Amino acid sequence: xxxxxxxxxxxxxxxxxxxxxxxxxxxxxxxxxxxxxxxxxxxxxxxxxxxxxxxxxxxxxxxxxxxxxxxxxxxxxxxxxxxxxxxxxxxxxxxxxxxxxxxxxxxxxxxxxxxxxxxxxxxxxxxxxxxxxxxxxxxxxxxxxxxxxxxxxxxxxxxxxxxxxxxxxxxxxxx
Length: 175
Prior knowledge:
- By secondary structure, the protein is of the alpha+beta class.
- The chain is built from five helices and ten strands; from the N terminus they run E-H-E-E-E-H-E-E-E-H-E-E-H-H-E.
- The chain has one domain (about 1-165): 7,8-Dihydro-6-hydroxymethylpterin-pyrophosphokinase HPPK (Alpha-Beta Plaits).
- The strands form three sheets. Strands 1, 2, 3, 4, 5 and 10 form a six-stranded antiparallel sheet that branches. Strands 6-7 form a two-stranded antiparallel ribbon. A two-stranded antiparallel ribbon has the order 8-9.
């Protein structure tokens, strides 16, 4: 059975509904869903704040590419369009495959530009790491170390200070 950590984000339209739609689309494979966090935009600050979450998923028949395909299908269902001029621009839904583990628990590594694993910038992003630690408190990002240590890195810790936990917003698999 492969496992994967997926990062969810939305900052256009009904952000919570988009995240709930993603959780519903992944419900058959979901082991656990994080809390919701409100985060400032990263990389392109001229846009609304994001809602972010993380999901731990597992499936016997899925490889890393299958998790990417499932994420993209959920993005399309939310009306996501990709703007080639704004790589980090606003979006109805963004689902990133952060890390994947094979059936024997080994991290899956990929240098494919379309699906680099582990995600090449996850260790720099508090909006990925903070929700992830909800679902894997003793988690490690392959090649980078413990989530708790990554959250203490100076640049990440600075970003972490601007993240707001939103316990008033729940992600159920049936919105």
